[in-house]
Amino acid sequence: MDGTSSGKLTDDLARLDFAAVSPEEFARIVKGLSGQQIAEVMRGELRTRILGEVFGRMKQQFRPEAAGGLTALIRWKVTGESDAVYETAIADGACEVTPGRSDAEPRTALVMGDAEFLKLVSGNGNPVTMFMMRKLKVAGDVGLASGLTRYFDIPKA
């Protein structure tokens, strides 16, 4: 891919109002991007916007009926041009997401690159396969980590 088409893709996505993009449309966008294209897009302010929107939607995508009585703090570390850390607290049938790292000990911590994160949250990647291929690192409760996707409505592209 030449720099021109990659730059156009980044420009097109930079103009996109992510708040207006449905989870299904987001899944289709991610599915159509190569790892190299994701790396191009996930830079600077655009990366901040994309991660903010994805984590911002977790609360709405949460499935309390699937979580039941689960109480857990999940720490997400998305690596790329810089590390982005978010925490998801699940308790009493609710889900709260906060940016940054708290002093609390997470039940499980997930570390992955930008491409793996976007594929995971858009339904375009299998967390078990990512773990086996060492593209997703898990510390703490591996069982919780392997079943996390069932607690959220994840679109299918």
Automatic annotation (TrEMBL):
Signal peptide: none annotated. Residues 63-152 form the SCP2 domain. It comes from the Bacteria. Pfam families: SCP2 (PF02036). InterPro entries: SCP2_sterol-bd_dom (IPR003033), SCP2_sterol-bd_dom_sf (IPR036527). This is Acyl-CoA synthase.
